Amino acid sequence: KQKYIHRWTTLPRRLCSCLQYILLLIRGCHTTAIFSPQSLSLSAYSSSGLTGFWIEEAIIKKKTEELGAGSLPLVDPGVYNYQEQDLNERLKRLYPAVNEEETPLPRSWSPKDKYSYIGLSQNNLRVHYKGHGKNHKDAASVRATHPIPAACGIYYFEVKIVSKGRDGYMGIGLSAQGVNMNRLPGWDKHSYGYHGDDGHSFCSSGTGHPYGPTFTTGDVIGCCVNLINNTCFYTKNGISLGVAFTDLPPNLYPTVGLQTPGEIVDANFGQQPFVFDIEDYMSEWRAKIHGMIARFPIGDRLGEWQAVLQNMVSSYLVHHGYCATATSFARATQTMIQEDQTSIKNRQRIQKLVLAGRVGEAIEATQQLYPGLLERNPNLLFVLKCRQFVEMVNGTDSEVRCLAIRSPKSQDSYPGSPNLSPRHGASNPHLHTGGTESPTCSNGVTPLKSKNRSSIKYPSASSSASSSTSSSPSSINYSESNSSDSTKSQPRSANSTQETSDSEMEIEAEHYSNGVVDGSSARIMNGTYKHEEILQPDDNSVGNGVLDEECSNGRQLCGGNQAATERMIQFGRELQALNEQLCREYGKNAAHKKMLQDAFSLLAYSDPWNCPVGQQLDPTQRESLCSALNSAILESQNLPKHPPLMLALGQATACVQLMARVRSGSCSFARVDNFLH
Amino acid sequence: MACLLEAPLRISVLSEVTATSRHYVDRLFDPDPQKVLQGVIDMKNAVIGNNKQKANLIVLGAVPRLLYLLQQSSSGLDLRTECAVVLGSLAMGTENNIKSLVDCHIIPALLQGLLSPELIFIEACLRCLRTVFISPVTPVQLLYTDPTVIPHLMSLLSSSQKTQEYITQIFSHCCKTSDHQTVLFNHSAVQHIAPLLISPSYKVRMQALKCFSVLAYENTQVSMTLVNVLVDGEPLSQVFVRMMQRDQPVEMQLTAAKCLTFMCRAGAIQTEESCIVLKTLPCLVRMCSKDHLLEERVDGAETLAYLIEPDVELQRIASTTDHLVAMLADYFKYPSSVSAITDIKRLDHDLKHAHELRQAAFKLYASLGSNDEDIRKKITDTENMMDRIVSGLSESSIKVRLAAVRCLHSLSRSVQQLRTSFHDHAVWKPLMKLLQNAPDDVLIMASSTLCNLLLEFSPSKEPILESGVIELLCSLTQSDSPALRINGIWALMNMAFQADQKVKVEIVGCLGTEQLFRLLSDPDNSVLMKTLGLLRNLLSTRPHIDQIMSSHGKQIMQAVTLILEAEQSIEVKEQTLCILANIADGNTAKDLIMTNDDMLQKIKYYMSHSSVKLQLAATFCISNLIWNEEDGSQERQDKLRELGFVDVLHKLSQASDPNLSDRAKTAMQQYLA
């Protein structure tokens, strides 16, 4: 026992690459740190370079998820969390075309963009007047935090009159940035307002026009900006009052102005359901714009259009390798296919392999069928290998699968359907075969248990009667890591001093975690351990039927096979080496770095499928890689990289995004996905 | 058969009939049924979209033969179905075609065909029936003559989408009266049609919706049932609200809004409910906007007028919604000057709808302005509004004239408008013109408006008087229509209020005491009330009282006695006692009461009546009689004391009602002085 501990503490001194970290993480040391972040200050890691960085990221991700706060810091998350969530959902539903990273939506009044006579409260949603209110010179306004994005198409907010105060000189409307705040909305250029005392509308002028009824305490006034035709109308208690302003300029802010003491108004930017049925109004415009698109004249070129459409469909089918469909489509429409059958079928085969998660085989097949292709595209190769690593974790890549599964037949159990999700099909046989390996346990959870044991509680496992029979898997691991350490440390040591100090930081960190292990070997308090503890009583107390169910849900690293895990670790090292090689040849590549980090991060969690980076394991993630490889092959054959259909789609999407940027509000209702059913 | 008998017509047209048409008919008589079938199919292909061919075939007698084949059970299903299809095609032609078909008794034949077990044949029959019934020339009653037809149609509603579409369409066109509504309702139309509102077929949903709109119109029983109907777990009103969503076809929005409007007017939905205030009303206002077809705008405005007519709150909301008042001004701009220049077709279209638009706008203005003074002001402030009404009053279309006068009537309820815009635009002139030889409904509205124009503060009163209105009004009081009688007498009453002696004499002279008595025994209580009001107004200021009483005193006293002795309401008797009080205020007229002991006893009786109102009026009368400063007051006081009035007055001075005791005390003081 002492010997192993010694190795734990001494080995890291020679470790300097991430891979060693991964190894440790698998063994559950660092998981302690990750699962109890409070015991480790983040700053301790912040200077630890690459490896420290990605752990730190994992921690931050985890932390933020635990908080569930998203990216926006809140003043009082406890009270407004629910409302905030409500608001986000409503805004997303009302303005799906708005990209809030580019153009944030107004969510409250701005504490900075207001006159001093204005007081804000209730999360900057309530406005009250705190001036003298002697005459119009005491008028005061406040703008919302952001202007109305054009991509809203139709924008709406409501203001409830909490109190009309002394005279009820309240104005609700819009103004551009920079308009004098010592005024009511509507009095100045680029300022528009509807006033409660006389019901007049003010369009950049000190004199109003009769517009609607007056409004007072208890009324809810809504203001709707139509960014398609640049008009504005108001509502009173849910009733539309008709157009108030036309030819509005862009980038207007929701604005309210007050003028006499006691006036209080509350804004609703979507925090609450609106009194006016704005979604109904939007639906009318959506129907209008869809009708406009549907009726768009294509003139006399109807015949040409048909040929174009047929070509698009045909090329799309060919591109994705739907060979038989493409052939029959070509026959039916009497069009030509440019590519020959075998080429299509080859591509189809490779794609099927990628989509089934058998990336290693896909790489092999590509190298065989298109020699030189991946050599010319080292980046693609790297991405593929990264994915291969992820698939190894998933237990789907053939390199780990053949280790884990005894019957080779199951390798062919993946039909080529691109949408097939191979994950569950893969994990079930593993569990059962793994189970039979261990003589002591007869249920499917065993592999997980033994794995956990070997990784966490290894010291005690050696004395346990139920430990694995054949050989101690961990010792194999160790010898392997040892050897790799020595090989790895050589090139590393040639690196800069900066890196050396980095590795020293790592060692320190490890010491710490090791100390935890050491100090309380019997009761290690980390997540993985707990996980096992939770599982264990299930093992004993629950009947077989439940256990079967459980094992079908349980997914394990590399399919739970030890040899496969080792192969994965080995592969990870190769991958790391490849990355370094690429860095040397082509310079640093941030995307690659991130990709590698994400892939390795999977190992930091006891259940990689349910962790912040677990998304990678989703079979749908294979699709983009699959199409990238497909495109590369097509390109090498001097065929178009993307099918024209996708180009057209991309063009349309880009056009709609461009419309948002050039402030054409109709983009909101011309979204491409509305037309994809 | 009927259509074959019109020989002269037939011959004249026959000469034009081509040989091919005759060939088609001849083939229907072929002995080989297979050839007949082919003949019918060829005929079907020949008549599609060819009105001339259709007319030819009808003239050549194809219809009776087709009907014969259709009814013959020996004919195969194919043949019978094809016959029904051809007949349906013939019905698609001109109205004359429909008439000929109906004359050939196509409807009973087709209704008989619905009893067939074959769906395809039933559908063909229904399609033809639908085409026939939606024509305005077909008598609706034909659907209801055989009482088994409606239940059978109801049972067919579950057969297919086509039967659903055709049957609901037939119902919605054939439900014209409350009797029809009742027939359909009693055959569970609501339960049968409600599920169709969520049919996957738009046509079925639409026709079902139309059915509900005609069923619910002014029908409380249907409307009350509708609110409790659930369609797929959802209340019907919510289904209608969903159909009013803005992305739905306009026709559907409008019809759903009609359904809710009718349900609301029938009292099944409260006017303040959100489905009315926030959905139906805004939807109808939207229909009035320029974006919609002229027909839709007419329909929208008329429905909205109907919805808001009785409810001032809805009127207020509508008046502020989407600039409705200004939006309606646009209804008067058809045909527009642009359409006249650019496009003959559009001009024609505009002209056809111009009257409809104008009358709809007037109707809606009338509803909007019927209660709220601010809205009336908003309406009269709309561009050229009064001019439009004035010219509307003399338009050729009776519908527009009626709507314009309704609008004017609504606006005439405003004191301010009577004093200003009504006078400025001399609206009385076209109004007076309208009153000559107008149909009753126009006359009712016009005379009602006139009543308001004759109010004493109206500056139009003078010129109207000078235009010889009295004779006209007196003739109205002789009308059979109670509404006209009441308007006539009401106008006279208003006119007599604080009027010159000359006017009063003219009124009495023109009306004649005979007519006056006839009105005093009018079966309509409100006519009686206004007549008494007229008498009261006539008998005001002392010289007028004396003059009128000297000439008509006997009759008037008789009438008063008659009313006081009859079984009449408190209000009527109060008016009558007030008249007596007025008479008692005259100089010479007093004697008519003082010499009538019977009358004095009656007054005494009413002074002790259980109704304070009557006590007050009677006391007022006595008070006038014993008033000090007048000639002969001493004798009257003495006589009344003898009759025991002082005791009565004394008792009344202790009355709990302050008005009454005051009045009695004042009267008592006359004795003390």
UniProtKB/TrEMBL annotation, chain A:
Organism lineage reads as: Eukaryota, Metazoa, Chordata, Craniata, Vertebrata
Ranges of residues in domain B30.2/SPRY: 87-274
- Organism, per UniProt? Gouania willdenowi
Compositionally biased, Low complexity: which spans?
Answer: 455-489
Segments forming a coiled coil: none
**CTLH domain residues:** 343-400
Q: Where is this region: Disordered?
A: 408-506
**One Pfam family matching this protein:** CTLH
**SMART domains per the UniProt record, alphabetical:** CRA (SM00757), CTLH (SM00668), SPRY (SM00449)
Give the protein family: Belongs to the RANBP9/10 family.
Q: What InterPro entries does the record tag this protein with?
A: B30.2/SPRY (IPR001870), B30.2/SPRY_sf (IPR043136), ConA-like_dom_sf (IPR013320), CRA_dom (IPR013144), CTLH/CRA (IPR024964), CTLH_C (IPR006595), LisH (IPR006594), SPRY_dom (IPR003877)
Show the ranges annotated as biased composition (Polar residues).
408-420, 435-445, 490-500
Q: Which Gene3D superfamilies match?
A: 2.60.120.920
UniProt superkingdom: Eukaryota
Q: What is this protein called?
A: Ran-binding protein 10
Automatic annotation (TrEMBL), chain B:
Q: What is its main location?
A: cytoplasm
Keyword DNA-binding carried by entry = no
- For this UniProt record, give its keywords in alphabetical order, as a comma-separated list: Cytoplasm, Nucleus, Repeat
State where the protein is found: Cytoplasm; Nucleus
| Repeat (ARM) residue spans along the chain | 61-97, 511-553
Gene Ontology biological-process entries: proteasome-mediated ubiquitin-dependent protein catabolic process
List cellular component terms (GO).
Answer: cytoplasm; GID complex; nucleus
Per its record, how is this protein called by name?
Armadillo repeat-containing protein 8
